[in-house]
Amino acid sequence: VSTSTDVGIIDGLAGLNRSVDEYPVDTISRFRYDAALASTLNMEENILDLKLHDMDDYLAPFTVVIKSCDGMGVEKHGCGPAVPKAVRFSFTIMTISVPSSNGPVRIFEAPNSELCCKP
Q1: C-beta separation of 89 from 71 below 8 A
Q2: What is the residue range of 41's domain?
Q3: d(C-alpha 32, C-alpha 29), whole Å
Q4: pTM for this one?
Q5: 88 φ, ψ (degrees, to nearest 5)
Q6: 10 Å Cβ neighbour count for 57?
Q7: Residue 4, domain member (yes or no)
Q8: How far apart (Å, rounded) are the C-alpha atoms in residues 57 and 55?
Q9: How far is residue 86's CA from residue 32's CA, in Å, rounded to a whole number?
Q10: How many structural domains does the chain have?
């Protein structure tokens, strides 16, 4: 996803040996943007899957559980500079469930991960 040849979504998830402090701040910001973009594309795939099962026009009650991710990238890593906010006022959709006779059925579930944050 990244235009940088040094780091991107694939390299960043592959476990590079470098410390976060060794990357320029703009590279880290770009990686965080790439992570949010990849997560959005993943969510789009889930929405298309719902359409495939004719659930895109579902009008009955449903439950959405979200987790606030109030600005990714505010934390300070090691001895380097504080990483600027790359994604502000973001959130994670954790689960979407619909009621059934046997209790709620989850039709979408995401791991509790920063990579799930949506801008």
Answers
A1: yes
A2: 9-116
A3: 5
A4: 0.39
A5: -105, 145
A6: 7
A7: no
A8: 5
A9: 6
A10: 1
E-only strand ranges, the chain: 63-69, 90-98, 105-109
10-14, 20-24, 66-70, 108-112, range with the lowest pLDDT: 10-14
With respect to residue 65, please indicate whether it lies within any of the assigned structural domains: yes
Q: What tokens were used for 95?
A: 């689960």
Cβ atoms of 81 and 47 within 8 Å: the answer is: no
pLDDT value for 31: 59
Only one residue has tokens 């209790």, namely: 103
Domain for residue 104, yes or no? yes
Q: How much is the average pLDDT of 62-79?
A: 58
Q: Tell me whether strands 63-69 and 105-109 are parallel, antiparallel or unpaired.
A: unpaired
Residue 104 pLDDT: 85
CA dist 69 and 76 (Å) reads 16
Closest C-alpha among 53, 9, 57, 54 to residue 30:
9
Whether residue 94 is contained in a domain is answered as yes
